[in-house]
Amino acid sequence: MYCLLKLAALNRIGFGVSESPTGPFVKSETNPILSKDMENGVSGPGHNSVTVGLDDETLYVVYHVHTFPDEPSGDRRPAIDRLYFEDSEMKIDGPTTDEQELK
Fold this sequence. Notes:
Elements: E1 2-4, E2 12-14, E3 16-17, E4 26-27, E5 46-52, E6 59-66, E7 76-86, E8 89-92
Antiparallel strand pairs: 1-2, 3-4, 5-6, 6-7, 7-8
């Protein structure tokens, strides 16, 4: 996974695949898999990490978003959403800014 950064307000998250951990990587045609959603108050998602839930099975992506989406700046806050795979493609249930119940 990587952050597609053009301008802070346009941060997005994408992914690529490789046969080797050192590459070369092929970017997914479905990128970005996470981008801003101003209707839900989400701007600038990016700089992510992946973690496993309390059940040791469910994957989550943790990333930052702008604290004030209508006035993007360096002020950020964390967000977390479920990460899963479907038909060999990485998917994220997000972006959201709501409190999440972790499994």
